Automatic annotation (TrEMBL), chains A, B:
Top-level enzyme category: transferase
Pathway the protein acts in: Nucleotide-sugar biosynthesis; UDP-N-acetyl-alpha-D-glucosamine biosynthesis; N-acetyl-alpha-D-glucosamine 1-phosphate from alpha-D-glucosamine 6-phosphate (route I): step 1/2
Catalytic activity: D-glucosamine 6-phosphate + acetyl-CoA = N-acetyl-D-glucosamine 6-phosphate + CoA + H(+)
Annotated GO MF terms: glucosamine 6-phosphate N-acetyltransferase activity
Family per similarity comment: Belongs to the acetyltransferase family. GNA1 subfamily.
Keyword Transmembrane helix: no
GO biological process: UDP-N-acetylglucosamine biosynthetic process
E.C. number(s) listed in UniProt: 2.3.1.4
Keyword Acyltransferase included in the entry's annotation: yes
Protein name: Glucosamine 6-phosphate N-acetyltransferase
Coiled-coil stretches noted in the UniProt entry, renumbered to this chain: none
Keywords tagged on the record: Acyltransferase, Transferase
Amino acid sequence: MTTTPISLPDGYSFRKLKSSDYENNYLETLKVLTTVGEIKQSEFEELICHWESLPDIYHPRVITNNSGLIVGTGMLFIERKAIHECGKVGHIEDISVFESEQGKKIGNFMVCSLAKIAKEKGCYKVILDCDVKNIGFYEKCGFKNSGIEMVQRFDK
Amino acid sequence: MTTTPISLPDGYSFRKLKSSDYENNYLETLKVLTTVGEIKQSEFEELICHWESLPDIYHPRVITNNSGLIVGTGMLFIERKAIHECGKVGHIEDISVFESEQGKKIGNFMVCSLAKIAKEKGCYKVILDCDVKNIGFYEKCGFKNSGIEMVQRFDK
């Protein structure tokens, strides 16, 4: 069962990220989530081109507001495994909502929509990692706590 | 900093998974971890071929014992992101050790080796999800708890 996304506000749209989105608030929206750093337009375009060259793996999506500005981000990537009869797992990453647009269920719509894509693509499950404080948000999107995330960071 | 892998027992080896490993205890080792189901040789070979066609993404590795039998499994896959200056994140998946070979630090060697590959490939971090009961194991491999795993499972 996926949780049906609730509606977006009038004029808002859910769509694929495009290489022409460099100056369309995508990176600014990601900055709400974490460190983005300096990314040149050519680097951005190369990255989108790379993601587009692997359409079974990378599913970058955005939500735009009624001015066409990106105000929500999300990535689904799909991993092919041996376990579960050569099953596929969807990984949801980099969910972020522009600060002035929070409270409009944009994050909920993004997460539910990415989970729906994962199901349509034949994944047996979709997973994500989050802070403890965001568990309630993801529960509303149909997720359950299932384990612990562990990390090892590398020095530059 | 990566944690240096401790040594494997004499005669044991760490290497890439090969399409000729279908009858070499790979799937049996994975079954220690979770449901594997029925996988035909042709399906297995197609999957390995798929992984090998994406060598920057999928890094499936095994540890063999002194009879050449697979006794440890692990996967590193590398995701390209926009955040962290178009950074890369390594995901460690499907760590499993054949039951009769447990207690020989095979899992530790696998995890440390995959983390080392992630660092060499330029990842800024490597992450994995685990059960609460395995936190201590992964701490010995140089990992720290950093969040919560959430899951949504789909009916077939």
